[in-house]
Amino acid sequence: MLDLVAHKVHDESRQGESYAPQNPDNKVYTRKFYIESYGCQMNFADSEIVASILNKEGFGATRNLEEANLIFINTCSIREKAEQTVRNRLQEFRKIKTQNPGTLIGVLGCMAERLKAKFLEEEKLVDIVVGPDAYRSLPKLVAEASEGHKSVNVLLSREETYADISPIRLNSNGVSAFVSIMRGCNNMCSFCVVPFTRGRERSRDAESIVRECRELFENGYREVTLLGQNVDSYYYTPPYSQPEEAQPVTFARLLEMVAQISPLLRVRFSTSHPKDITRDVLTTMAAYENICKCIHLPVQSGSTRILQLMNRTYTREWYMRKVDEIREILPDCSITSDIIAGFCTETEEDHQETLSIMDYCQYDLSYMFFYSERPGTLAQRRYKDDVPLEVKKRRLQEIIEKQNQLSLNNYKKDIGKTFKVLVDGDSKRSADDWVGRNSQNKVVVFPKKGTTCQKGDYVNVKIKDCTQATLFGEVV
Ligand code: SAH
Ligand code: SF4
Ligand code: F3S
């Protein structure tokens, strides 16, 4: 398996990292591509598909912009700021293009889908525009662009899942990998651009998912994260040609199939829409020790009135009962969230309800944003973006402070407990320490001295101290 180094996960601080080849086969490539990714884990997983498609065409990856024949930027449209980051980056690519006029610049992902051919008018330096469902056409588009024709393919598909393409793992630590299980989203949250950029929801062939996870395990990986905008609505119906006993596969069943590969393979998943996570999923999680006890359950707001305007399809009380159900079936489970401050018409009372639902749910971590109006969404068409920016920012700050408090309290409760930790590698701060994560996805740092463990091993660590984002302990 060809491996590339340099990749990263969904985390605002790590946006935009590039990839470079490790090249174990010592193959020398005369044509090279450079790729940089922004946005969610799905986009990073897609870049691994793109790398695989380009590699088959004889392009090697490089981390050095100057030696690249192709420069790709995999983009995100979720908030205005995400798009601005991409535009700024494109301006930096302009210098490279001036030095090497033959270099082709391609825009991939959600911004490509949103802006389509308009991108070519707005950003003259761009040669290729490709939407998330059109990556198979990249070889053709690159060939056209090499001949001087700007090329665009932003067709969305109802079927494409890239099921048969083996992703090239980019900058993986060799322990943990993302596996895409579905694409698109059929929910219509009024603030969200994803249904427009990613198209209709479709589930990937269950067998191909299990095969990919098994291969990862056989290649030494010890953790897979099953990815989708709404994993709990995964539903795969085998084609008619299969035997009659072939049953549709639900998300709970898929989780079980992946968990059964080996007790040594940890299984995670993201993201769950609160309306779709079933009791079946929770009881399956409880039944398998290797299905990690961590649920990302974005609440968005604590006010029923705002949730209705957001078209989230649940109320404050309904969401709280869902959290009760999780706590009842999975007492050790961590719960994390996404929260939006200052959605259209949000009052101080609504905002207070968001703060109080956070207290109720005791989130271990949240991704927090202020509302950013997106062109074409239901909210943009129907509601006025009427909360002043200073108010949005102040409310967001209060939400962040609340989350910091909750995280610290939660982490403090772990002092004295012993966790099974999967070792990810050296701690960023010191090569004398290992860093890993427990089942709840909390980062655990512990001294190497006196231990014999290696990257990819499981060890029991007793927690002695913490910050709001890290547990510190010792191997027992
Ligand atoms: N499919 C996932 C979310 C994907 S987007 C889910 O339903 O949970 C990730 C997060 O970005 C969302 O949960 C939301 O909190 C935030 N987000 C989406 N659109 C936004 C907007 N217009 N302004 C601010 N935040 C937004
Ligand atoms: Fe966007 Fe809602 Fe779909 Fe998540 S579930 S991607 S927030 S529309
Ligand atoms: Fe962004 Fe597209 Fe993901 S808009 S968050 S990259 S699905």
TrEMBL record:
The protein's required cofactors: [4Fe-4S] cluster
Q: Does the keyword Iron apply?
A: yes
Q: Which residues form the TRAM domain?
A: 412-476
- Keywords assigned by UniProt, alphabetized: 4Fe-4S, Cytoplasm, Iron, Iron-sulfur, Metal-binding, S-adenosyl-L-methionine, Transferase, tRNA processing
Q: What is this protein called?
A: tRNA-2-methylthio-N(6)-dimethylallyladenosine synthase
Give the principal location in a single coarse category. Answer: cytoplasm
TM regions (residue ranges): none
Source domain of life: Bacteria
Q: Which reaction(s) does its UniProt entry say it catalyses? A: N(6)-dimethylallyladenosine(37) in tRNA + (sulfur carrier)-SH + AH2 + 2 S-adenosyl-L-methionine = 2-methylsulfanyl-N(6)-dimethylallyladenosine(37) in tRNA + (sulfur carrier)-H + 5'-deoxyadenosine + L-methionine + A + S-adenosyl-L-homocysteine + 2 H(+)
